[in-house]
Amino acid sequence: MKQRDLLYEGKAKSVYRTEKKGRLIVRFRHDITAFDGGKKDVLQDKGSYNARVSAFFFKYLEKHGVKTHFVSMLDDRTMVVRELTMIPLEVIVRNVAAGSIVRNYPFKEGTKLDPPVIVIDYKDDSRHDPMLNDDIITALKLCTQGELKKVKAVALKVNDLLAGLLAEQDITLVDFKMEFGRQGKTIYLGDEISMDSMRLWDKKTGESLDKDVYRFDKGDVMATYNRVAKRIIE
Ligand code: 5GP
């Protein structure tokens, strides 16, 4: 697979065309950002931890019947993916109250959310990713009602699969964010699922094993990513 011109540069990944129709290359960079890009750093090897964990999750999900954009890895931080038309939604599933749901609503941090709560934000940094509802999503024509139903069903299935997998490593999947795209009428899980897009707590100690370590200066970010990647993959 040959890398061609740059198609899109996000805050932590760059997307390139390839010589093959319908296939793109995603390079996970070592940049880390938080608070809509308000806090930024470059951390050696961060891209490879996230790419490897994402690839591991995508393969596991595919094996269990979830359609993802993952095709293969070219090197430890470079993924070949199916080209999708992305839907500008951030689909968040929450199993435990933390982060913005605690800031914005009267939930106590650490409260179990059963059944899990789905929150959908509009992917638009300039508007600070405001929360949507079904009517706004359809009024803005971000996706059809049928697609939205499918997205929510897949999100809950992914949550069940990953929460179960992580529990085996004594890790609580507190919450995580997914992005979806379409190819024709088919919806695929896209983007990444990594320590940058999940909130993971050690079941025994309650310690954060994710980007909250960076957001809130809780410790050595790369040492945490290294340890959690090993726990998940090995
Ligand atoms: P919160 O709404 O509490 O800030 O985030 C909920 C979950 O979704 C967290 O696991 C967080 O990492 C993830 N998340 C929310 N927005 C974004 C985003 O814009 N980028 C990434 N990478 N993750 C996000």
Q: What are the SSEs and their pairings?
A:
Blueprint: E1 3-9, E2 13-18, E3 23-28, E4 31-34, E5 39-42, H1 46-63, E6 70-75, E7 78-82, E8 85-86, E9 89-96, H2 100-104, E10 112-122, H3 134-139, H4 145-167, E11 171-178, E12 180-183, E13 186-189, E14 198-202, H5 212-215, H6 221-233
Antiparallel strand pairs: 1-2, 2-3, 3-7, 4-5, 6-7, 8-12, 9-10, 9-11, 11-14, 12-13
The structure holds guanosine-5'-monophosphate.
List the main descriptive attributes of the protein structure presented here:
234 residues; alpha+beta; D-amino Acid Aminotransferase, Chain A, domain 1; 2 domains; 5-stranded antiparallel sheet; 6 helices; binds guanosine-5'-monophosphate
Q: Would you write up a description of this structure?
A:
The protein has 234 residues and is an alpha+beta fold. It has 2 domains: 3-82, 2-Layer Sandwich (Phosphorylase Kinase, domain 1), CATH 3.30.200.20; 87-220, 2-Layer Sandwich (D-amino Acid Aminotransferase, Chain A, domain 1), CATH 3.30.470. The protein has 6 helices and 14 strands. The strands form 4 sheets. The protein has a 5-stranded antiparallel β-sheet. It has a 4-stranded antiparallel β-sheet with strand order 10-9-11-14, covered by helices on one side. A hairpin with a 2-residue loop joins strand 12 (180-183) and strand 13. It is globular. Bound molecules: guanosine-5'-monophosphate. Residues 90, 92, 99-100, 129, 175-177, 196-199, 211 line the site of guanosine-5'-monophosphate.
